[in-house]
Amino acid sequence: MNRVILIKYGELTTKKSNRNFFVNTLYNNILKKLKGMNVNISKDMSRMYIEYESDNQDQVLKKIGEIFGIHAYSIAYKTDTNIDSIQKTIQEVLNFNIDNDFNNGKTITFKVETKRSYKEFNLDSMTCNQQFGGFILKNFSNLKVDVHNPNVLVHVEIRKNNSFVYLNEYKGLGGYPVGTLGKGLLMLSGGIDSPVAGYLALKRGIKLDLVYFEAIPHTSLEARNKVIELAKRLSIYGGEMRLIIVPFTKLQEEIYKNVEENYSITIMRRMMYRIMEKLTLRFKSLVVINGESVGQVASQTLTSMKVINQVTNIPIIRPVACFDKLEIIDISKKIETYDISILPYEDCCTIFVPKHPVINPVLMECIKMESKFDYETLIAEIMSNLNIMIINSKMDDNKYQDLL
């Protein structure tokens, strides 16, 4: 039997005049993901088909499960578009896939679902269901029909040039193909929340570069390596990314010399947003993304967010803003960032946390405190000393390609 992996687009089908762009982007993303795996990919506006070496099936399926923009995918069996060929393929597929319960004499229930895209086919979908269902009953004595809760769902897709038969359907990641909605900069700390925010942004089609604020010697090289590992995990879903390491030490020290302790986190975040705005211009990004969740810490109250946001006109996207911590942790475990995030290496947002941070900061107080030191010169110095790395999921530990 001629097997292919059949890809269903899902949300991409809502794009009407832009659909071709979304499908082509998904096609290119799949090509990159499966590079070197000896596959052949074809597409139309409804489906994508991947021909592959049988020895690579598990590996190909795993990689497809890491690609955004795919609603569902199946191992499908290609046949000619005529009744005899389709029925022969159904028989072969059931013989090949039905488990040992059938061989042991146990009755198995089934249902046929036909999708007839080729409208010139001489039977409509309902008649096809009856035709193929009758064929199965005639040839498999231990199978019986159950249209409500079948053990086996037999899918038949009838298309002009070829038709396809398949049983199991795997749920894809959904969303939009990465790169279809422009570029963003993710503020990536070493915590639990920001990698999850990055994952969710990728799901909406945003291509990411990553920004890490570093304050050596107050933060450690272990903290940097932790962030690199998180970046590598995100690159599984988003492809190759830049990691922009921001040398934040001098500016952070000036904040703690000149700012009232309870305002230090608020002022620090305002400085970060000023830097992020400059980074979006340099790296041609449309938005800033972070892992802020409403009310989780003092700088994430609505009042704090408003005061901190005042320094920039760049849109700030907070994908986990309305998630509780347990929901965020669940996603972090699913994408395998949780165990990295809980490693005990602090970032610059946690090393100088005041005992009683202000939760309702006053804008004029922030402006007054910021006037006590020359932050603009410090930011200019930071922008001249960025460390930029290329991150991808296949890179070896401690072997990082520097762009500078």
What is the number of helical segments per DSSP (H or I, 4+ residues)?
14
What multimeric state do the chains show? single chain
What is the CATH architecture assignment of the largest domain? 3-Layer(aba) Sandwich
CATH homologous superfamily title of the largest domain: HUPs
Residue fraction in strands: 15-25%
CATH level 3 topology of the largest domain? Rossmann fold
Helix content: 25-40%
How would you sum up the global shape?
A: elongated
Q: What is the tally of beta strands?
A: 16
Major sheet: 9 strands, mixed
Distance between the termini: 52 Å
Averaged pLDDT, please? Answer: 92
- The secondary-structure element order is EHEEHEHHEHEEEEEHEHEHHEHEHHHHEE
Structural class: alpha/beta
Describe the protein's architecture and organization:
- The protein is 38% helix and 20% strand.
- The strands form 2 sheets. Strands 1, 2, 3, 4, 5, 6, 7, 8 and 9 form a 9-stranded mixed beta sheet that branches. A 7-stranded mixed beta sheet has the order 14-13-10-11-12-15-16, sandwiched between helices.
- Residues 400-404 have low confidence and may be disordered.
- By secondary structure, the chain is an alpha/beta fold.
- It has 2 domains: 2-171, VC0802-like (2-Layer Sandwich); 183-402, 3-Layer(aba) Sandwich (Rossmann fold).
- A hairpin with a 3-residue loop joins strand 2 (40-43) and strand 3.
- The chain is elongated, with a radius of gyration of 27 Å.
- It contains 14 helices and 16 strands.
- Helix 6 packs parallel to helix 7, helix 8 runs antiparallel to helix 9 (264-282) and helix 9 packs across helix 10.
